[in-house]
Design brief:
The protein is an alpha+beta fold. It folds into three domains: 168 residues, 2-Layer Sandwich (Nucleotidyltransferase, domain 5), CATH 3.30.420; 89 residues, 2-Layer Sandwich (Nucleotidyltransferase, domain 5), CATH 3.30.420; 69 residues, Actin, Chain A, domain 4 (Alpha-Beta Complex). It is built from eleven helices and 18 strands. It has a five-stranded mixed β-sheet, sandwiched between helices.
Length: 348
């Protein structure tokens, strides 16, 4: 079977809980938007997708729902996920038919079941891609970070996303030990919202919690004290209220979740082959994903693990860059794809 050149657009997709990114073959990252969709529940009309929909969070009338159709890296709303992806593919080239997209490599959490993986493939095909293939996110992240995954030595990567934290030790282009946690960026936001509610009797939304985390959140005490003014609803009076939150309070709010992540990194190392543990001591641990940007988190992990820890270049995009490397070199990375892909498929 032959395809015309215009039909041979290959893409890499990072379908994340918080953000979705698309890498277009030979062009690089062309889409980087929140995985959010706004729907009119009366007419079932899609009102906004991506950044425009994210701005509506907590600010919509009764008949408008703002939906995040991926929860902990798993598709919870098939149709809305498909609509989001279809909208993003149109943004790449509004003049082109969706069927122009030939092959897609999609990064997914390492602990997805076969049914959940099949759901991801079906969503991508339903959005207009001819063939869809799956790769585990830690492998894609390691590729995107330009780690030497083909060598017989350990590459330990921790991808802290919105819905999941992926911890993996990779050697010889395969995962030796891995663990996927449902404790990541969204859980930290929930911790902050709960702390503000319990400590100040103030209700705030997820966007405010995210802003607090990014602006004054940290894993270790900072040299400079930070504080931020926020507004919300007083749970006692029901009226608007303004308070000042300090960095020490945010640190206390997220400390338990950060400890869970660090403890799981330790446990993955503990169950790994001794030779690979020696490699980790020599090469260190690599962090990526939005959670890796939390102030002092790399230092906290380094202190507790007694190994060097570094944040990769451009940590927010390393998974999608890894899928892009795969789609541009399918024959080379054939063995790391979870989907049945034959050399004949590559030639199509």
């Amino acid at each position: 079977m032959k395809f015309f050149p215009f039909f041979r657009k290959n893409i890499g997709i990072d379908l994340g809980t918080s953000n979705s990114l698309i890498y277009l073959d030979k062009r690089g990252i062309v889409v980087n938007e929140p995985s959010v969709v706004a729907v009119n529940v009366k007419t079932n009309q899609i009102l906004a997708v991506g950044e425009d929909a994210r701005k509506m969070l907590g600010r919509t009338p009764v008949h408008v729902n703002v939906i995040r159709p991926l929860v902990n890296g798993v598709i919870s709303d098939f149709e809305m996920t498909q609509e989001i992806l279809r909208s993003f593919l149109r943004k790449i080239d509004n003049r082109a038919m969706l069927a122009n997209y030939h092959k897609a490599v999609i990064g997914v959490p390492s602990d997805l079941t076969e049914v959940e993986r099949k759901s991801v493939e079906d969503v991508v095909r339903g959005a207009g891609v001819f063939q869809a293939y799956i790769v585990e996110e830690p492998l894609a992240a390691a590729l995107g970070a330009r780690l030497p995954i083909d060598e017989p030595s350990a590459n330990m990567i921790v991808d802290i996303g919105g819905g999941t934290t992926e911890i993996a030790i990779i050697s010889m282009a395969g995962t030796v030990k891995a663990r996927s946690l449902k404790v990541a960026g969204d859980k930290l936001n929930d911790d902050i919202m709960r702390f503000i509610r319990d400590e100040f009797q103030l209700a705030i939304g997820e966007p405010t919690a995210e802003e607090l985390k990014m602006a004054i959140g940290s894993a270790l005490p900072l040299a400079q004290k930070l504080e931020m003014t926020i507004r919300g609803r007083d749970l006692t009076t029901g009226l608007p209220k303004e308070i000042i939150v300090r960095d020490t309070q945010i640190r206390a709010a997220i400390a338990k979740s950060l400890k869970i992540i660090v403890d799981n990194i330790k446990e993955v190392i503990e169950i790994s082959p001794p030779e690979l543990v020696g490699d980790i001591l020599h090469k260190g641990v690599y962090l990526c994903g939005g959670g890796s940007l939390l102030k002092g988190f790399d230092q906290l992990i380094a202190r507790d693990l007694a190994v060097s820890v570094s944040v990769v270049d451009d940590p927010l995009t390393c998974v999608v860059r890894g899928t892009g490397i795969i789609v541009e070199n399918l024959s080379k990375y054939l063995r790391i794809l979870n989907s049945p892909l034959t050399p004949r498929d590559i030639k199509l």
